[in-house]
Amino acid sequence: xxxxxxxxxxxxxxxxxxxxxxxxxxxxxxxxxxxxxxLLAIPKKHYADFSLLDAEAKxxxxxxxxxxxxxxxxxxxxxxxxxxxxxxxxxxxxxxHLHIHILGGQVLPFEKL
Length: 113
Ligand code: 5GP
Ligand code: ZN
Description:
By secondary structure, the protein is an alpha+beta fold. The protein is about 25% helix and about 20% strand.
């Protein structure tokens, strides 16, 4: 997708350290970390947000969650972590290419909304 920052990272048009990569996804560090370990799991296919999934995404998301779980120790969030998807403006989404935040590497506070 043109002008999508995550599509550009996936296509290596913007350099980034890919901590994990397979045919359907990458995991990178968030540029502005909100926890000791703050990673982003990003499907290679451009879904603008969590409401805009298709049939392929049904299977793909299972694989993505599986890879997040399998890589926890290696990527530093093995002692416990939180997965977050922000959907839409009210949900705090700022990059409109679906991604899953992985927060860990510390005891995470629970914040009141
Ligand atoms: P959202 O608010 O859409 O759920 O999350 C977008 C996240 O992407 C933010 O946490 C932000 O720090 C991160 N981000 C934005 N631009 C870049 C970038 O160019 N590289 C990386 N690694 N993260 C980015
Ligand atoms: Zn994209």
